[in-house]
Amino acid sequence: MTPLLDVTGLTMRFGGLLAVDGVALQVHEKQIVSMIGPNGAGKTTVFNCLTGFYKPSDGKIVFRGEEIQGLPGFKVARKGMIRTFQHVRLFKEMTVVENLLVAQHQSMNTSMLAGLFKTPSYRRSEKEAMERAAYWLERVNLHEFANRTASTLAYGQQRRLEIARCMVTQPSLLMLDEPAAGLNPRETHDLKELISELRDNHDLTVLLIEHDMKLVMDISDHIVVINQGTPLAEGTPEQVRNNPAVIKAYLGET
Ligand SMILES: Nc1ncnc2c1ncn2[C@@H]1O[C@H](COP(=O)(O)OP(=O)(O)OP(=O)(O)O)[C@@H](O)[C@H]1O
Question: N or C: at which end does the chain have fewer Cβ atoms within 10 angstroms?
């Protein structure tokens, strides 16, 4: 089966620093794949290359059968690859529901004139955007906070809002950069349930960077380990957990 995302030879240099060196990665539809590795291994740099925030120095990124390396971020997002960031990035002064509407406006194809004259197609898009926002607020259990300013939400709720903000754009690949960072055990458990539900009930494919090894081992179908920018190992959670090189480079540290 052709993978949804197929990355080969991904390389990123910052001046003299080779941050990512020949990383390969395959993500199949409806899989949850995790990328792990010690601090500074190059995980976020891989995300930045995949999502168009960085132009990779070398390598091929094929998403849904199409080469996308070097495309700008907004074009990658429109193709259905959506990410969150290591640190929460919401429009903090907007309400919860406004955050979800803005995300959809950014990906809508309606023109400014259509908005100005409120054409029927524009009104239909607006209605659908509102319905999608309500639907995802319910799914991430934030419906009662719809009109609250985003900054007043608890940290775990802000994390869930970020995921809802991705989901309203109807992605096929959701990329989460350390989604459990700063969460308490209860919130981490809820996050795990949410990610599983997105895959099981919404046909979503997930690529995850995460340091919480319990979460990674519990949730992943496949794990890719990178160390100092280079691929170290990959396999099922069981295979990775028992790989001596991984234990030495990473798990041994925790
Ligand atoms: N924009 C940049 N300019 C220069 N160096 C960078 C840049 N971004 C990342 N790096 C360097 O690339 C290397 C990999 O960093 P990266 O953030 O990708 O690692 P990581 O595996 O995500 O780490 P962590 O788990 O700590 O988030 C590090 O040495 C980092 O300092």
Answer: N
Q: What does the alpha-carbon distance between residue 142 and residue 91 come to, in Å, rounded to a whole number?
A: 16
How far apart are alpha carbons 25 and 19 in whole angstroms?
16
The mean pLDDT value for 76-97 works out to 90
Instruction: Tell me where in the chain the CATH 3.40.50.300 domain(s) lie.
Output: 1-80+171-254
Residue 154, H or E segment: none
Q: Which has more pLDDT, 215 or 124?
A: 215
User: Distance from the CA of 208 to the center of ligand 1, in angstroms?
Assistant: 16
In CATH, the number for domain 1-80+171-254 is 3.40.50.300
Is ipTM > 0.85 here? yes
Is any ligand 1 atom within 6 A of the Cβ of residue 48? no
Whether residue 28 contacts residue 207, with contact meaning beta carbons closer than 8 Å, is answered with no
Element (H, E) at 11: strand 5-14
